[in-house]
Amino acid sequence: MSYECFDLTVAEGIAHIRFNRPEKANSMIPSFWTELPDAVNALSRDGTARVIVLSAEGRHFSSGMDIAVFMDGGLDGSDNDSDSRFVRAEAFRHHCMALQDAFSCLEAARMPVLVAIQGAAVGGAMDLITACDCRYATKDAFFSVHETAIGMTADVGTYPRLVKLIPEGWARQMSYTAERVSAEKARDIGLVNEVYDTAEEMLEAVMNIARQIALHAPLAVSGAKRMVNYARDHTTADGLDYIATWNAAMLDGEAIRTSYVAQAQGEKPEYDALLPVKKTAGE
Prior knowledge:
Elements: E1 6-11, E2 14-19, H1 32-46, E3 51-56, H2 67-71, H3 85-108, E4 113-117, E5 120-122, H4 124-130, E6 134-138, E7 142-144, H5 158-165, H6 168-177, E8 181-182, H7 183-188, E9 194-196, H8 199-214, H9 218-233, H10 236-250, H11 253-264
Parallel strand pairs: 2-3, 3-4, 4-6, 5-7, 6-9
Antiparallel strand pairs: 1-2, 7-8
Helix pairs in contact: 1-3, 4-5, 5-6, 9-10
């Protein structure tokens, strides 16, 4: 399937989504908000890919939401000026939640999502990258919760996730000031895992990390992602209880034996892929 906003390839267990509108700084036009969740949800349902990598062509990762999204249907969810402001607000709430779903699918995907960032990651791009599992950047990358500077409060996912990724003081400073945070500072505060000199070096490193993930049992990796997400949002006691229940149901003894035998023989272990799942309502 072809997409307007990115190219998608799957090879060696790695699904690579590469934003392909560099002449527009990979701004998120209306079709982006349906294409991305369609692609990610399909990959997650299929289960063939073991990891997803997001990257971008050109100087910038993404300048965020395109102005066309703001104008499509109106900022208040209606083109009809005669509608009550209350029903317009209710409609906008659903519009906002649909945009949120476009990035929540990254967090909900059965496999890890890695993102490689060069240049700008501002506005909607911050919403996107905070929903990914791991973030990597070039030394020229910069990050900004830019919505504050244009008169709005970011609403597509930055706040609930950013405050769990970096110290609260920095989440607040970035949010209140809309300042640009450099790649080095982003690494210092834990927003990105590593910083690289060039986009080429970064993508090579990220793909190597993806290959390492793809070597492991898909069920174990999927379980690990689920446990980290759950632990982030629950108490330690809840997390301990959940992992015990998970492994009681899904601990794969054969995969463990396969791992030990392959390692002893210096061979690459072969694991069962995740099974496809049916499309759910709303996808």
